[in-house]
Design brief:
Two copies of one chain form a homodimer. By secondary structure, chain A is of the alpha/beta class. Chain A folds into three domains: 63 residues, Single alpha-helices involved in coiled-coils or other helix-helix interfaces (Up-down Bundle); 213 residues, P-loop containing nucleotide triphosphate hydrolases (Rossmann fold); 48 residues, no CATH class. Chain A has 15 helices and seven strands. The radius of gyration of chain A is 24 Å and the shape is globular. Chains A and B meet through helix 4, helix 8, helix 13, helix 14 and helix 15 of A and helix 4, helix 8, helix 13, helix 14 and helix 15 of B.
Chain lengths: 358, 358
């Protein structure tokens, strides 16, 4: 649909036809489209110059569900793409209370001191309910937020993790095109959100707390396996002994996993985000990861695989939503689910009955 | 498509129209359909009487990819459904060499001595390549295979795990309709096959070996979490000490997992399939599981959830295969994947280009 509108404007500007049979409506559409085109162009120009206001406005377009905005967003993302390259994308997860905001505040500030430009994004599929629970309150990063070279953006809202993911993926590209070279993507770990963030980042960092008792307990299965580093926060004061024990336990746990395709051996580090201890070591580790995966080709290969994954993901999401949002399907689905509950049909017969409708 | 053919026969037999305008082709179709109907009926009758030849032939229809067979299979499965109820479905997994065949031979024979009728199926998505690597060689269960009350069937072949899964699910129903009350479903653990078998069984049993060294090593993540029991095989002779140690280690590992929705606490048992030790205890445990999950409602609820899962799974598989098998999509997909590799498009723009085609 939006492709159509797009094209008609394009072909008009290139065509030699007389416009005698252009209807009033399509003339309006062409005028709108031209206006959008020119504002797109200047927005993109500002964005590529590193203007944070332009970046923010572009992300707002990406996040919008309005058709007109979607078209503009697509054009801007496409224009930004050739310039979006040289960043490192770091995923950061950890349960609430582990100190993610404090860590990002410390880590981000350190990176800016090193001359980096740092963008902080978030993936929180629950944010449409809680109105942006993570990063929504920017004051939690009061130092970082005042920095010229920092850009902080709360999680987009969305009906589904898929929608949030798409918006975040496109926002990453826009940040990169605006010259940000470290992109931190925070997630709070609702549902599948860690897997989602893992599939859009180069380096995945699990933030943990040193605590008494069983350190392995309470970690969602699969998260440790995804981690390139486990960073144990609040390793200060009375906590230091527990933190060292936790490190040992995690190191042992990590040995149980098969080697990663990146050939990177996940590391366990101790930090104190509050006292800014161990922060530079985290960056050294990430730099080491980047250079070793650049060298063995994994870095580029992984990004391509991620892009392909997202291609298939987007298509499959679309196919499903198209099918299940069909009003006929909705009615029949309810009926078939009831028949299943009453043991009156098999899953496959029910599926066939539903597929006949589309 | 097959629905169509079905209906035309049905409406013909019920209609009052003159058949003057029935073409030769459709008359043939009607005759075929009538013939199929009568052979379906007698096959179903034999199946419901517990005839193993009829069961085997019905499963062959379920496994066939021919349209005509699919129609017959659907009718038979539908006819069998009201009679398919009272079994327990046990999934059995474990790495090659752990002694799955020997265990099934011992366990199956024991069950038959207890007056049970035992069906053994397999899910092996690699079997289309290896021509049925598990259960293909029935002689590995030489005792069981001669039993009147045992039915052994190798894995269906299929292009995809989804196809194999559908065929196995329908075969389970047919076995149950034929009066088999214990259904053992073996899988060798290729790709996602354990998850697949887990989602079609009531009780999931992980077979392990007692061995020196780190017992947790080498287990695919998520498998232990799915298990209702870990059964350590070859706990005989010199192995007994190692087996007891392995049991302790697994018990400790199982405590790390959150409680199951079934409220069942996974157990660790020692057996020697070869010397037929510990076999009756395995059955006692499964019986206990069945009665406790019947009581708390989990058993029935879980089956319904599984049916619903398979409903959505079938639909989603179909939507995807329909889309990706479109020749236009195939050509464009190759092109878009190349553009992604060259960093010339985003995953989402590529997805939009592909979705425009359908």
């Amino acid at each position: 649909m939006n492709e159509h509108q797009h094209k008609s404007a394009l072909s008009e500007s290139q065509s030699n036809n007389s416009s005698g049979n252009v209807s009033a409506e399509s003339a309006q559409r062409i005028r709108d489209s031209r206006r959008n085109k020119s504002s797109e162009k200047s927005l993109l120009k500002d964005l590529l110059e590193g203007n944070k206001t332009a970046l923010g406005r572009s992300i707002t377009l990406v996040e919008s569900n309005q058709l007109k905005h979607k078209e503009m967003a697509e054009a801007i993302v496409e224009g930004a793409l050739p310039h979006a390259k040289k960043s490192i994308r770091v995923g950061i997860t950890g349960v609430p209370g582990v100190g993610k905001s404090t860590f990002i505040e410390s880590f981000g500030s350190y990176l800016i001191e090193q001359g980096k430009k740092v963008a902080v994004l978030a993936v929180d599929p629950s944010s449409s309910v809680s109105h942006g629970s993570i990063l929504g309150d920017k004051t939690r990063m009061e130092k970082l937020v005042t920095q010229k070279n920092a850009f902080i953006r709360p999680s987009p809202s969305g009906d589904s993790l898929g929608g949030v993911a798409r918006k975040t993926r496109e926002s990453i590209l826009l940040c990169e095109a605006a010259g940000f070279d470290v992109i931190l993507i925070e997630t709070v770990g609702v549902g599948q959100s860690e897997t989602t963030v893992h599939s859009m980042t180069d380096f995945f960092l699990l933030l943990k707390l040193a605590g008494a008792g069983d350190e392995l307990q309470g970690i969602k299965r699969g998260i440790v396996e995804m981690a390139d580093a486990i960073v144990i926060n609040k390793a200060d004061g009375d906590n230091q002994k527990a933190a060292r024990e936790a490190r040992l336990e995690f190191k042992r746990a990590l040995q149980l996993y098969p080697p990663k395709p990146s050939e990177w051996k996940p590391q366990v580090q101790l930090i104190s985000a509050l006292y800014e201890k161990g922060i530079s070591e985290v960056w050294e580790m990430i730099t080491e990861f980047k250079s070793s995966t650049y060298k063995n080709g994994h870095f580029e290969h992984n990004r391509q695989e991620q892009n392909k994954f997202w291609l298939f993901q987007s298509i499959n999401d679309h196919l499903k939503s198209q099918f299940y949002n069909d009003p006929k399907v909705k009615i029949e689905l309810e009926k078939q689910l009831r028949l299943i509950e009453e043991n009156k049909t098999t899953a496959f017969t029910a599926a066939r009955a539903l597929l006949k409708l589309s």
